[in-house]
Write a structure and sequence with these properties.
Number of helices: 1
Distance between the termini: 80 Å
Largest sheet: 3 strands, antiparallel
Number of strands: 3
Radius of gyration: 28 Å
Strand order of the largest sheet: 1-2-3
Oligomer: single chain
Shape: elongated
């Protein structure tokens, strides 16, 4: 058999396959290390935007009804008129928000009136979902926007 008639090998060698797998692994690591911190920053930015929107709706609520919702009424008062309102005719038809968002971690936003930091507080409990002693370390509220 002459050199010319020898069949040429088809496919990749094991070494070539290993090199490709190592390169893919390195690229994946670089992408993951660069993208994951941005996901956390995006969640915090979204929570701050939601809180700012709720603040605006609460200010409109007060302009119409002359008071903020009570802590018991909560921010649900922005979507539907509370049953215990003194002057329900002052409530804006259709409410002040179309829907009440959850924070980026799937928890409901918290509300207190009067707040510890102003006439009202609106906050997300953050990624840990806890608030209160020790849990507020990652809370995002209208007092720290």
């Amino acid at each position: 058999m002459t050199r010319r008639n020898r069949p040429t090998p088809n496919g990749f060698t094991l070494i070539e396959m290993m090199v490709v797998i190592v390169i893919i692994g390195i690229l994946t690591t670089v992408v993951v290390l660069n993208v994951l911190p941005d996901v956390d920053k995006a969640a915090i930015t979204r929570a701050r935007a939601d809180i700012a929107t709720l603040e605006t709706a609460l200010t409109s609520y007060k302009a119409d009804t002359m008071q903020f919702p009570t802590s018991q009424q909560g921010i649900a008062a922005l979507k539907a008129a509370p049953t215990d309102m003194a002057q329900p005719e002052r409530y804006r038809p259709g409410g002040y928000v179309q829907r009440l968002p959850n924070d980026p971690w799937g928890h409901a936003y918290q509300y207190a009136s009067p707040g510890r930091n102003g006439p009202f507080d609106v906050w997300s409990m953050g990624p840990d979902g806890l608030t209160g002693p020790g849990g507020e370390a990652d809370d995002i509220g209208n007092w720290n926007l």
